[in-house]
Amino acid sequence: MIKHLWYAHRVRPVETVFTIGWGAFWLYWLVAAFFMKKGKVPWSKELRIRALIALVVVILVRLGVFRGHALNTDVWRSALGLGLFVLGLGFATWARVYIGRNWGSPMTQKGEPELVTSGPYRLVRHPIYAGILTAGAGTGVALSWQWLIAVGLAGTYFLYSAIVEERYLTQQFPDTYSAYRDSTKMLVPFIF
Question: pLDDT tens, position by position, for the chain (192 residues)?
């Protein structure tokens, strides 16, 4: 009994890697946010969407969807998940560094927007979203399939955000954004 309780509460090295990786990523994100250009988010409809997603997450947590599931012990799943995690966070970070001060929280409208279409943005129109979703999928594969529910919710939010952002960018860059949109996929290179 004691051995079982000890094992159930023991932190595995793969969990530590994901915890440190996500922590470092979000810390960088927070610090980098202090150096972005000023912008505004039209809050009416977008606030309702964000509140709805937050409510769904709270309900899922309260229902225990993310608790009590055995962690993955398959080496291949841990390796695949870790690979997706590193690839995703690397891609999102590359995109964040590349876009520089033009970055903003989802659906932010910049006063002096610049259209960035090179670097990771030549592969997909929303590489930050794509990278975070890939890293989240890797986390789910490596730790617990139930976490893919959270990735699905984040994906829904990111897709909605991308659509809103693209409407704004089409208005801001009527001549150039349509051509860029037609030549580049939204989230998955060559596919979607």
Answer: 445 444 444 557 888 888 899 889 989 888 887 777 666 655 555 656 666 666 776 677 666 665 655 555 678 888 999 999 999 999 999 999 999 887 876 766 767 788 999 999 999 999 999 999 999 999 999 988 888 888 998 999 899 989 988 998 999 999 999 999 999 999 999 898
Q: Is residue 77 part of a domain?
A: yes
Q: What is the DSSP letter of 175?
A: T
What is the pairing mode between strands 109-110 and 39-40?
Answer: antiparallel
7 located within any domain = no
Nearest to 27 by CA among 19, 39, 15: 19
Helix (H, G, I), strand (E, B) or coil at 180: helix
Pair 82, 141: CB distance under 8 Å = no
Q: For the chain, what is the domain count?
A: 1
Q: Which residue range(s) make up the domain with 106?
A: 12-183
Does residue 191 lie within any of the structural domains?
no
Tell me how far apart the alpha carbons of residues 4 and 80 are, in angstroms, rounded to a whole number: 28
Q: Are 77 and 131 in contact (CB under 8 A)?
A: no
